[in-house]
Fold this protein.
Amino acid sequence: MKKKVAKLTLVSALTISSVIAYTASTTSPVYAQGSLSELNKEKSNIENKQNDVKSKLDDSSNKLNDIHSEQESVETEIKKLNTSISSTQVKITEKKEQISTTKEEVKKLEKQIEEVTARIEKRNELLKERARSYQQTGGMVNYLDVLMGSQSFSDFIDRVGAVATIVEADQTIIKEQEADKKLLEDSKAELKSKLSSLETMLADLESLSSQLNTEKKAKDKLMAQLKEEENHVHAEMLSLEEEEQLLKDQQVAMEKAIKLEKERQAELARKAAEAERQRKEAEAKAAAERAATQKAAAQKASATKSSSNKTTSISSSSGGSSSPSVSKSSTSVSSGNFTRPAGGGYLSSGLGQRWGTFHAGVDIAATGAVPIYSAADGVVIRSYNSSSYGQVIFISHYIDGQQYTTVYAHMRDGSRLVNAGDVVSKGQRIGTMGNTGDSTGQHLHFELHKGPWNQAKSNAINPIGIVPL
């Protein structure tokens, strides 16, 4: 049997230690006698365990409710974070588009700057030419020569207008030069500021996005932890529910045991009363016979006028020895308490470490419809479908004052013939060999526990040499 650690956390399952049953004749007990007080004490222990399991189930249920509440709170926070992340991502996209647009404007401005720069250079050349002219002619002196060289008054007027135009043009060039330089500097500063502002906002948004994603990851991690905790609590509750069901089955079996014990005691009382009646009847009969003998002897003595007290005494004694006696019979405990649990097959695996885990029983493998039998007289504790054992039956036995528990695992689906609380006899068919649960290949996984079964299987003993295999 390829077996994993059982999921059940059964702290003290299968603890019936004094189950009483009867053979078909109902005249001799299947088990050693167990007192009603012991059975009732065991029943009380089971009830206490049931209360403890119920308390643990209530605690687990409350814990699960707390986890669900926390999950709802975290889920709400995650939704808010997702909304913030989406909103931030939209803003980041917008800022990137604005930066892209601004960079396009920068490119356009760069072309404008090239044009302005070209104009400035042209003006620089013109101004340089003006400066050279001023240097060579002495500046305004040249304009005086122009005016003084007039041929007439009208020519003078024309020359004054021309000089004024030239001076005004120079001033315009200077103003335009200064305006272009200022425009250039202002445009550069404006775009630089705008680009810097957008990049700062983008960096802030990306930082916010990173922070939000970090928070979401933390919340996702917390949610995963809560889910894991939820699964753990669910597993605990399933285990406790299994234990609760097992204790219920155990209680049913115990009530059956108490009923059988009462019947046994009633039968013993009836037999004792019958024996007492027979004893009294025999004594009365013997007394009557003695009286009759004595009377006959007295009549004989009177008739023969022979009074022999010795003879009368002997005659009386002889009459007493002829009375019947009642003998009591006792049932000896058979050495063959167990029988082979499988109707065929071979021992394919023994008890001990296997594949890194403890194999708590033996495996008997066979093909075909192989019947499974109860290894000894007992009471069925559990009969159900387990995730690991598959179709399995637990039976409690009480032999020579010692409790044993046997386990019959991996039986065929639909083949279990007994239920919890049923009294079974040694060799009674209880199912058919199969391959259910955590199993590879048809076989019977058989366990023998000296005492109750527990999750750690600490009571498991090697059945070889005890149970015919």
The chain has four helices and twelve strands. The radius of gyration is 56 Å.
